[in-house]
Specification:
mainly alpha, two-stranded parallel sheet, 3 domains, 9 strands, 358 residues
């Protein structure tokens, strides 16, 4: 093309050197006389129309900005760490005496330590990083953690990731994410700290003096195992249930007479019947979904009245046994999986203890 043989036209001064920015003359089909949008420096090669201009001056400017950004970032991190240390430093908390821990608190701690204790035993990794389920449901896990935090048994570690803390406009940490921070044990051991860790990891509990506590934990475990299974089965068929008092009361009452495995059976059949009714067009989806809890209640009452031999369903792969369950039934009561096969009652707990000479 003829325009390519024309000399470049000066359009402005280069911002990076004494030379000029120049551009070529546009071809005849263009509405503009000059290709201003492609001006570049004939000396240093600066190309202002390119975002990451490859000229040496622009590269140097970008490197300087990167260094300044890195310095600022490091300074911000330093200030935030100092603020975290000031707000959550270990020395701010009065230590809890080991002997003041209740049986329930020791069981809770044992469960968390088994899931999240660091290899050197100095801190507890974020609960959210546990590869094993701490409890059957996040709501129960949260209750346990909040109880230990409220009673200053667990306190956040200042070595936690900065992003685990929430900062206000003055860069002061005013809260933290329960599942993302590391924790440290705020306990004054009776002897060495390493021996405290050992005692918590391998609890020795007098079952005869702990029936009430163990039964409370068992009931919570059973309820949340049933709730988790219910939610899984409902979500699996496209239902989106809301968990209210009716649902909670229904499952609690069922567990007074049936094991977790038997309630799984009841839930499975209720969901299957509801799905069939919806798919056949007999009921709208919302109506069919609301039928499930009612069906569970009705099945339970009929099973009692007609003395059904209700089969136990097994755990499913998606909902493995939690660490709290293993702790209670395998480590303490020495009868693995029994809590899944019999209902959580005092009578059954006494029978389990008796059969194992506990």
């Amino acid at each position: 093309m003829l325009v390519r043989s024309f000399p470049l036209v000066r359009v402005s001064k280069c911002p990076n050197c004494p030379a000029d920015l120049a551009c070529s003359i546009a071809n005849k089909s263009s509405k503009l006389l000059l290709n201003n949008h492609k001006a570049e420096c004939w000396n240093c090669g600066h190309k202002p129309y390119i975002y990451n201009c490859p000229c040496s001056a622009c590269i140097a400017i970008r490197r300087k900005e990167e260094v300044q950004t890195e310095i600022k970032m490091k300074n911000d991190i330093k200030l935030k760490k100092e603020a975290i240390e000031k707000e959550y430093g270990f020395e701010r908390y009065e230590k809890i005496e080991e002997d003041s821990l209740s049986i329930k608190e020791k069981i809770f701690l044992c469960t968390i330590l088994r899931c999240c204790l660091s290899e050197d035993g100095q801190y507890i990794n974020p609960i959210g990083s546990s590869l094993e389920p701490v409890t059957p449901h996040q709501e129960l896990t949260t209750k346990i953690i909040k109880h230990l935090i409220k009673n200053k048994i667990l306190v956040p570690s200042t070595d936690s990731d900065i992003d685990a803390f929430v900062f206000d406009e003055n860069n002061k940490p005013n809260s933290y994410y329960t599942y993302d921070v590391k924790y440290v044990l705020n306990i004054n051991a009776n002897d060495k700290f390493s021996l405290l860790i050992e005692r918590l990891l391998y609890l020795e509990i007098d079952v005869h003096e702990s029936y009430e506590t163990l039964l409370d934990i068992w009931k919570d475990l059973a309820f949340y195992e049933v709730l988790s299974y219910f939610l899984h089965q409902m979500n699996d068929v496209g239902y989106e249930p809301s968990i209210g008092e009716v649902t909670k009361t229904t499952f609690s009452k069922l567990l007074e007479n049936f094991s977790v495995g038997q309630v799984f059976n009841i839930i499975f059949r209720a969901v299957a019947n509801s799905t069939r009714a919806y798919q056949s067009g007999e009921y709208a989806k919302k109506h069919a979904m609301n039928m499930v809890v009612t069906s569970c209640r009705n099945q339970g009452e009929r099973a009692i009245a007609e003395q059904w031999d209700l089969k136990l369903y097994n755990r499913i792969r998606q909902l493995p046994e939690s660490e709290l369950s293993k702790m209670l039934f395998t480590a303490i009561l020495q009868q693995p999986h029994i809590g899944f096969r019999v209902s959580p009652t005092l009578e059954n707990l006494l029978e389990i203890a008796k059969s194992n000479n506990l």
